[in-house]
Structures are given as structure tokens and as C-alpha cells.
Amino acid sequence: MKYLLLILCTIELLFITYWQNIAGPYLSPLLFLFASLGIGFTYLKVTTTPTSEIPVKIQINPKVVFAAQLVIYGTLSYLVIKTLKTIWWWDMTQDSGIDKSDIIQQITVLVTRFLGHQQPYAFIHFKEYDLYPTYLPFQWMPYILTELAHKDYRWVPAIALWLSCTYFFIRNCSLFKLNMPLLASILIPVWPLIVWYTAIMHFNPMFKLTVEGLIAAYYLFVATSISNKKVGWLAIGIALCLLSRYSIILWVPLCLLAYTITGQQKNALITSGIILLFIIVFYWFPFMRKDPAIFLNGYHYHSTAALLEWQRDIQMLHSKFYLMNGLGFTSWALKLLPGDLKHIISVYQAIHLSLCLLTVTALLVYFWRHKATISLNVFLMFSFKVYLAVFYAFIQIPYKYLFLVPAIISSALLADAWSNNRTKAIIARQ
Questions:
Q1: Which of 54, 286, 299, 354 has the fewest CB atoms within 10 Å, measured from its CB?
Q2: 3-state DSSP call for residue 131?
Q3: Which of 65, 163, 149, 156 is closest to 107 using CA atoms?
Q4: pLDDT for 186-210, tens place per residue?
Q5: Which among 256, 299, 297, 294 has a CA at the least distance from the CA of 275?
Q6: 337 — alpha (psi -120 to 50), left (phi > 0) or beta?
Q7: Residue 254: partners with Cβ closer than 8 Å, 6 or more residues away
Q8: What is the pTM of this model?
């Protein structure tokens, strides 16, 4: 089953890169969703099934294996940073569209307004349209450092994701976990770097025009903290995710309820307190206190932006770039939902919300019924993956760069399933 998990993680990565849309716009999102959900359920099977499997003894000196891990980690880190710098240099010397993307431009405006003691959350006037800021504080505030240092903004997501990958590597390259197959012991600690480098090599506009690496860093940090039972770090990671993109807003109550169900009310209070503190200090006090409507204004603008993007994709790109790119179910919405485009989007948004709520409810019922046989951290990891798989599959605009997040968090499930400590815990419960 562990090898099946590794295969599914590889398939998921291929579906967002070299196999994207391989089966067409209708079957491909199904296959991608099945692969992502398969990772979650296979992980659950591996971590909850008692086994008398005898760990594989590595005959090579553990220090040699650790040295190999370090070499591969260093090599991949070097290749990632070197390739990113090459891409950015090309952007500065070619008409590659860097100035046509409103992602970095929006962040730049928010940062410069903040440093100029202005309210960042007001309409931004671009040449062809006006945009209301939709980015939450931790999606743009880290770039204050690069603005003050007069550096390329794309260094922030690069450094953040590298640090998150490094944290993951440190937590999973322990010499005490080396009684596993040699290939697994070398590949698993660097799996996030493998995902990152593969994504860069296949679709480097993801890293030319967007800054999704920062969001991926937050989510990988959360997944790593779950597997390592670090409640404080997990709470900080959740706060960073909530204040950058509210994708996990429905999963957070599930996490808190899971703590409560297992009698860990203290951890639930710690997590709630840290999240609330972050919201007050970094969102309410500096911004929402002055204008309580900024969150709802940004949320409503998402619907307006979605309509414009759907129209542009249909009229100019024949629905192939976003709506039928094989990653999300927007292709099914166009095919099956009646009415004009505004009505289709509205219904699709309702479907998305309903499916996310249904997923969270089903996960909660499952945990309630199996709380005696499944550990809390296994459930949190499993539910985190399953919830995000559903959320991203039905997102209203399936931008390709968004799918770096669900692919990279699979690393934590992979590492936890292969962990020797997990095998011992399962055997001990027999």
C-alpha cells in the first residue's frame, strides 16, 4: 500500500504537469480528483491497518544514506533556485507578459499604499479595468521586505517555499527512519522539491507571473506540522493560510471539533486563540477596524472577476486555458448547467460550497464513528488532503498555478505513511 501511495503521488503530480488534460476536459478532472482522493484514502488505509510487516534493514551505513539525502536535497535546491533566476532574467529581457499579470501588480500597489500610510484596500485603477483588492494580509504583507530592499518580489515565494521544503526535509531525513527501502528513504524527504522542480520545468509561467509558492509554503508547513504533532506551529500555519487565502475556512472548524472530540480541549483553545490573535493583529486592527466591509467587498469582487474570466476564456481562448484545462469541473458546468453565464457561475459556486460542506460533514461523522481506532493526527492529515482535493477540483476558476498547493501537501502524507514510527505504533496497538 505504501508503494501505491507513492505511485498515486506521482500520478497526481503528472496530472498537473505532463499529463494535464491527457484524457480531455471532461474525463481528466475526474481522473485527477480520483488520484488526489486516492492519496488520502490510501494514506488512511496504510496508517490504520495493523501490520506485522518487518521493516527493511538497510545494509548501507546510515551516515552514507544521510549524506546521499543531503546531496540530493542540495542539488535539487540549487536547480530550483538557478532555474527560477534564469526564468526571471528572461522575463526582464523578453516581452514575456510579466507586466500583463495583475497578480504582482496588485501586490505592489497594496505594499506601496501600506508603506505610504494609505488604506491598501481601495479600488486599484489599471489601464483597462478597475480591480478591488482580494488579497488577504499574508498574501501581500511579506513583500514589504522586498519592496524596502528593492528586490524582485518573486524572491519572497521562492525563499518561503524553500524554507518550508527545508523544514519538511529536516523533519523527515532522520537517521532513525532509515529502516525503509533505500529509494524511499532518499526520495521522500525531498518530495516537495521534486514537485516544485517538476512544476517549474513543465510550466514556468506559473513562477514567472504568479507568486503561488508563498501559499504552497504555508500549506506545506501546516501539513508538516500536523504529521509532527506540533500544535503551536500548526495553529500558526492555519492562521497564515486563513489570512492569505480562505480555502481552508471550512476545514478549520473540523480541526477544532476533532480536538474537542478526542478530549484535547486545551489544544483546541490554543489553536483558536492563536488564530484569533493573528486575525486581530494583522487584519482587524490595521485594516478592518477602519473599514469593516473590506472582506465582503473582496469576496464579492471574486464573483465579478470570475464572470469576466469565464467570458474572456470563452471568447478569446475557446475555453481551453481555464475552463477546460483538465484540472477542474468548470468544463462540466459549461456542458450541463442551463442558463446564461452569470447563472451558470452562480449555480456552480453553490455546488462548490455544498460539496465542501458535505465533505466536512462526512469527515466529521467518520471521525466520530472511528475515533477509537484512528489517531487524531492521522485524521487531521487525511481530512486536510480530502477537503482540499474537493475544494480545488470545484474551484470557480481552475488556474493551473493553484494546483501546486494540493500536489505539494501530498508530500506530508507520503512521509507519514512511510514513517517507521507509524509502523511501530500500529504494531503496538495489536
A1: 54
A2: strand
A3: 156
A4: 899 999 999 999 999 998 888 888 8
A5: 256
A6: beta
A7: 360, 363, 364, 383, 387
A8: 0.93
